[in-house]
Design brief:
About 55% of the residues lie in helices and about 10% in strands. It has helices at about 1-20, 70-80, 100-120, 130-135, 145-160, 165-180, 195-205, 225, 230-255, 270-290, and strands at about 45, 55-60, 85-90, 120-125, 260-265. Helix 2 (about 70-80) runs parallel beside helix 3.
């Protein structure tokens, strides 16, 4: 019991310090410091001064299996309150005609949009703009590595998510390059699939083809020297931290506007962001009480 109280007091002290300094973002957890335990909280429910939910932040396992129990859990959470806006991870790829099709093709982010569409509720992506993210990463990494990272990660995503073979992945990346080359920061490097292959061989040799880059290279908690990614895990780490800060700022801004928010994100983002959001929310509630 004494240890529990000590941990509790330390937690309150850290939050109070961040509130005093006015910078709750100091509480953002580093991916390298995050360790999943049996007590890890995958959901965050922030309540207002009337004990009504202001934010229900659901941490999901990325899945396109419509029978996965989490989709029923998301539905129960969705029906547990009244929301003004629904937020999802990734780009807005729309919805399909049925719930099952939407989940199979678009996963949990599509399911959120499907639920919101049924109630005609506003939706928005949790993601920052690609240009803002690239500008941030370019302060730390060379542009060619940044572009190579995004291209290889997308190849890995569609290969595993949709079972694409080499020809299909090449076709997909070809189309993606048209969009990427239109971004001024990316227009002068790796503009074609042959250039992508050449850049890949420059860093990784011929042991594996570029479209077969493994999932382990694209985890923010990984170490490139251990996974073989050379620099991919480190770029992903910076990318994830930037995205986390953007998500926090987006959610905090909506809370300041008095919006009731339902949000679904890959579950590891929840413990990374939770302390910051709780800190920001306590500040907002205190400010609101002070005005009353």
């Amino acid at each position: 019991m004494r240890n529990f109280l000590l941990v509790l007091l330390i937690g309150y002290a850290a939050m109070a310090k961040a509130q005093t300094l006015g910078d709750c973002k100091d509480l953002l957890l580093e991916y390298a410091d995050f360790m999943e335990t049996d007590s890890t909280q995958w959901h965050l429910n922030l309540k207002d001064n009337t004990n009504s939910t202001a934010l229900l932040y659901f941490g999901a396992i990325h899945s396109k299996d419509a029978s996965h129990p989490q989709f029923q859990e998301i539905l129960v959470a969705w029906n547990s309150g009244e929301y003004d806006i629904a937020l999802f991870e990734g780009p807005n790829r729309g919805i399909l005609s049925t719930m099952e099709e939407t989940i199979v093709k678009l996963g949990e982010s599509g399911y959120v949009r499907y639920l919101a569409n049924e109630k005609d509720i506003l939706v928005a992506s949790l993601e920052p703009s690609p240009i803002a993210e690239i500008e941030y990463l370019s302060k730390v990494f060379p542009i060619d590595r940044i572009k190579l990272f995004f291209l290889l990660r997308e190849a890995q995503r569609v290969r595993e998510a949709f079972g694409m073979d080499k020809e299909q992945v090449v076709g997909h990346i070809d189309k993606l390059l048209l969009k990427a080359n239109a971004i001024s920061l990316l227009e002068d490097t790796i503009t074609t699939v042959p250039e992508l292959e050449k850049a890949y061989i420059h860093y990784w040799g011929n042991d594996r083809e570029w479209w077969q880059a493994p999932k382990e290279w694209f985890t923010p908690s990984g170490n490139s020297s251990e996974t073989g990614g050379i620099f991919t895990n480190e770029i992903n780490k910076y990318s994830s931290s930037f995205r986390d800060l953007h998500m926090i700022e987006l959610i905090t801004g909506l809370l300041k506007e008095g919006k009731k928010i339902f949000a679904v994100v890959g579950r590891n983002h929840i413990p990374i962001q939770a302390d910051v959001l709780e800190c920001e929310w306590e500040k907002l509630k205190s400010t609101s009480q002070g005005r009353n």
